[in-house]
Amino acid sequence: MLRPAVAALLLSLLVAGCGVAGGASIEAPVTVYVSLPLTGPQGPVGTDAADGTRLALEEAGGKAGAIEVRARYLDDAKSRPWDPVAVGANARQAVQDSSAAAYIGELDSEPTRASVPITNDAGLVQVSPGAGAVDLTGSAAGYPDSPDRYQPSGTPSFARTVPSDDVVVDAAAQWASDLGAKLAAVHSDGSAFQNLATSEFKSAAAEHGVQVVSSSAEQRGVARYDPGTQRLGFDGRLYELSAQLDAPMLPGKKFHSQFARRYRRSPGPYAAYGYEAMALVLQAIGEAGTDASSFRDNVREEVFGAHRDGTVLGSYGITSDGDTTECMIQRYRIDRAASIAPGIGRPDARVRVPVEPLCPTG
Q1: pTM
Q2: Residue 287, domain CATH
Q3: Residue % of the chain over a pLDDT of 70
Q4: Quick one: 128 exposed, middle or buried, by C-beta within 10 A (0-12, 13-18, 19+)?
Q5: What secondary structure letter does DSSP report for 29?
Q6: Is 19 part of any domain?
Q7: Are residues 158 and 286 located together in one domain of the fold?
Q8: Angle CA(152)–CA(278)–CA(193) in degrees, nearest 5?
Q9: Same-domain pairing of 172 and 200
Q10: Are residues 277 and 225 in the same domain?
């Protein structure tokens, strides 16, 4: 049994942030920064993602294992689609906070390209619930020096809970085949993203037995894919794809009711991906130990290579590049509102009807 004086000394060392072996321990609570568009045109979907992170933290009791965790919410939009000054300020605020354990954000790929080099340089892991750009995790035509340009530290630190854009493109090619198309057309607006998507669609279409023809072809039987809107047209019908599953289609069937009960509204598609970004980060923090000298590095290493079973997104892992192995892509059928609810709304109004999601097989 420890003598009272010795026990008191050990307790004082631990409270002061020093372990028995003399190594500095982290001081709780640690902070997870969440940077999302909370205002502006993306405000509703950004708020959905932010509320998803809140729900995950609440359900964990504000802890990751035995470590107390708090979240700091920052707006990266300032009433715009995204604000470059705000994005930079948010990332710098996080990396300069010694209590910061992780950074969740941004919602879209363009602002993520601006924040990742900042968080990476400081060794702070960043997890996005929505940024699907291929160049963020690997080499990509039209994006020179990717992903190295986002990794000044020389080590990957960005991960995402949403499938990357190339998975969505592959799913579009597969759907064209499933609809019975033998021919397809795709058009790029000349941007790096659409040029890359066009090239990927042509390759994926060939793998699914669909021949890509000139985008000017107007004959019936040609599926038309627009990478800008992720819409697919075929034989007079319009379809749409999304990397985010519609909430009722999630593998975690309870999430919709849990979110609705907590926030008094139905979750949008980004809510589950925000929830899972926080859940992934909490798992990593809980497994990172308490050594302050290596804590951020340990949290990052626990995210990369993580495996999670039975989540709201199903079972998935994070690859060494930061991509999720979750591959379900939501399919929507675009119908006229009048055909679904006659007499309600404008006759020409369009509504998205979710249909069964799929994982591409190409």
Answers
A1: 0.91
A2: 3.40.50.2300
A3: 89
A4: buried
A5: P
A6: no
A7: yes
A8: 50
A9: yes
A10: no
- 292 occurs within a structural domain: yes
* Listed residue (245, 240, 244, 248) closest to 266, CA to CA: 248
Distance CA 39, CA 18 (A): 42
Are 332 and 354 in the same domain? yes
| 254 lies in the same domain as 153 | yes
CA Rg, the chain, in Å? 23
**pLDDT tens-digit series, residues 13-31:** 343 443 333 469 999 999 9
The verdict on residue 5 lying in a domain is no
User: Helices 165-178 and 192-207: crossing angle, nearest 10°?
Assistant: 40
257 and 126, same structural domain? yes
> Which of 354, 279, 351 is CA-nearest to residue 311?
279
Q: Are residues 151 and 262 in the same domain?
A: yes
pLDDT averaged over every residue in the chain: 91
* Residue 337 pLDDT greater than 70, yes or no: no
- Give CA–CA dist 126/156, Å, rounded: 10
Residue 144 and residue 293 in one domain: yes
* Predicted confidence (pLDDT) per residue in 269-288, tens digit: 999 999 999 999 999 999 99
Both structure tokens of 222: 């040609």
Q: Which domain holds residue 172?
A: 166-242+328-358
Q: For the chain, how many structural domains are there in total?
A: 2
Distance CA 249, CA 256 (A): 9
What whole-number distance in Å separates Cα of residue 123 and Cα of residue 293? 12
d(CA 287, CA 298): 8
Q: How many CA atoms, within 13 angstroms, populate the side-chain half-sphere of residue 247?
A: 21
- Give the CA distances from residue 98 to residues 29, 67, 88, 112, 159, in Å, rounded to whole numbers and listed in that order: 11, 15, 18, 22, 21
Residue 38 in tokens? 């909370």
d(CA 362, CA 349): 34
Query: Cα–Cα distance between 180 and 306 in angstroms, integer?
Result: 38
Assigned domain for 185 exists: yes
Q: Give the pairing type, strands 30-36 and 63-64.
A: unpaired
